[in-house]
Structure to design on (254 residues):
């Protein structure tokens, strides 16, 4: 790792990844650390998984800390950002990955169900970004993890799909607002991904997965590292002329 330090694309950068204890977020955090970034691994409840990720990063000569915060709670967001700055003195990259998805028919949707999704997936993203940009004095990259559901909603997925459509719109608006400050904002929208949550929900090797694979040109669902590689591109200077875009990482599925 040290021999190729000059090649690492995020050398001397600081990245905060929300919802990073597992799945896509964990893969992104580990990928960023391998490319030289100091990484803040945010988690809401799974402290053991977050600490294990930090241990792996440090074992690989990377730099990382774990910070607990529920990004649906404004006070937690401020505390998380304070911990980031007190440990690393700056912030260059924010990945808004924390989110929730639950299926419900129209008969099952309640106010609590609606607010549970929008408070985390939309308001939490906005408030985390609000705090982050105050520390991006030299510009930065913000990556919002969206979903194919923003443009291709599935049945019983109304509220979640609406939150991700909101993220796409937020991305464009923030790119316009923050561009003059040297801050790029993009949305990375995965399709079906083989995460722990995907398996726990019973979707792995389900008929739903098989149907999705049939309409995916690359013939499989994604692994978390597939999304992490795309996030790496958006975080690095290789995408320095890209902002306000929504990139679908779906294996060609439409």
């Amino acid at each position: 790792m040290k021999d190729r330090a000059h090649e690492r694309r995020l050398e001397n950068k600081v990245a905060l990844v929300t919802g990073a204890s597992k799945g896509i977020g964990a893969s992104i955090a580990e990928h960023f650390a391998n490319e030289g970034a100091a990484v803040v691994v945010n988690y809401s409840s799974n402290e053991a998984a977050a600490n294990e990720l930090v241990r792996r990063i440090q074992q690989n000569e990377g730099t990382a800390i774990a910070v607990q915060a529920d990004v649906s709670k404004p006070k937690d967001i401020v505390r998380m950002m304070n911990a980031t700055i007190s440990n690393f003195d700056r912030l260059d990259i924010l990945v808004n990955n924390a989110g929730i998805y639950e299926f419900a028919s129209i008969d099952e949707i309640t106010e609590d169900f609606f607010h549970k999704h929008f408070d985390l997936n939309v308001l939490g993203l906005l408030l985390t970004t609000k705090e982050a940009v105050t520390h991006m004095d030299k510009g930065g990259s913000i990556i919002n993890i969206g979903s194919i559901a923003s443009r291709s909603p599935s049945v019983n997925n109304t509220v979640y799909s609406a939150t991700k459509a909101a993220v796409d719109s937020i991305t464009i608006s923030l790119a316009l607002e923050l561009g003059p400050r040297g801050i790029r904002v993009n949305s990375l929208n995965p399709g079906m991904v083989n995460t722990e949550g995907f398996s726990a929900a019973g979707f792995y090797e389900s008929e739903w997965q098989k149907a999705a694979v049939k309409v995916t040109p690359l013939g499989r669902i994604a692994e978390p590292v597939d999304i992490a590689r795309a996030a790496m591109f958006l975080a690095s200077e290789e995408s320095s002329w890209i902002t306000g875009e929504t990139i679908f990482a779906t294996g060609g599925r439409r």
Observations:
- The radius of gyration is 17 Å.
- The longest helix spans residues 111-133.
